[in-house]
Amino acid sequence: MAADFTRFTDAHIRHSLNGPTPTTLLNAQTQSAQHLARSALAIVDTLNGQPMYHSPAIHAVYARVRQLAHLASDAADHLIDAVDLLDHTRAGLPVELGDGFLAVVTEQEARRGAGRCFSLVASLTALGSSDALATAELFVAERRLRGFAPEYQPPALSPTQDTTLRAVARGDVAITSGKPYLRSEDLRVSISTIRALESRGLVMREDCPDWFRDERVHLTAAGRRGLAASFARPRSTAPAATRPPARPAATAARAAVR
């Protein structure tokens, strides 16, 4: 679902309502938003089908998934409102301007109103991918706590590769002119790291609808399984007898790095 939110956002950023057929775009985005809402509700059904202890964390997972469904559904409603506004204006019919007041508006006024709906949709869905990822991590962490570990083993990744995989899942990584583009200035991702993850079948590239990006990097099915298996995974520790005693300075250095 995180990837679908990213695709929705990329398509939304690309377009404006200044073209000759704005309703075509609005209808397409409406269908995408409705798909997002259905996907979130399907996750709720999946959760309902699993026996689990409904701890506060699991209740939070349910709340977050339902919130994603509501945000997507609200986005679809605003897009439908924009289509109705344009269609009614084109037909010369009055439109509601608030508080039940009806009036006939010009096409320019109608486009401005539709544009406000379009911008509101962008705000509603902007954090969908990162929220979906955070919800998945919360769910896996809670299930681990209750003794239900994912059936897959996470791939052995370097810290940089692990960070990149998470950034890809959040929809933060695109490629422009052969170089990575990151949404967050706090991230640093090299093209060599992306290629290394590609070679292991964990990520893939898609053409990006955003005018300013060439490709969007997404997780593959193997990447999604591997990332989910890494959530809240306890660090492996060797028995103390097999380790030589550490010097105090070395111990402090490791603690500082950690």
Describe the structure.
The chain has about 260 residues and is α+β, with helices and mostly antiparallel strands. About 60% of the residues lie in helices and about 10% in strands. It is built from 9 helices and 6 strands. The chain has helices at about 1-15, 20-50, 55-90, 105-125, 130-145, 160-170, 190-200, 220-230, 250-255, and strands at about 95, 100-105, 175, 180, 205, 215-220. Strands 4-3-6-5 form a 4-stranded antiparallel beta sheet. A two-stranded antiparallel ribbon has the order 1-2. The chain is flat. The chain starts with a helix and ends with a helix.
Strand content bin: 5-15%
**Form type:** flat
Summing up helix and strand content along with how strands pair, one would put the structural category as alpha+beta
The largest sheet has its strands arranged as 4-3-6-5
Main sheet: strands, sense, barrel:
4 strands, antiparallel
- Regions with little confidence, pLDDT below 50 for 5+ residues: 236-258
Annotate the secondary structure layout.
Elements: H1 2-14, H2 22-48, H3 56-90, E1 95-96, E2 102-103, H4 107-125, H5 128-145, H6 159-169, E3 173-176, E4 179-182, H7 191-199, E5 203-207, E6 215-219, H8 221-230, H9 248-257
Helix pairs in contact: 1-2, 1-5, 2-3, 3-4, 3-5, 6-7
Keywords:
single chain; 258 residues; alpha+beta; 4-stranded antiparallel sheet; two-stranded antiparallel sheet; 6 strands; flat; disordered C terminus
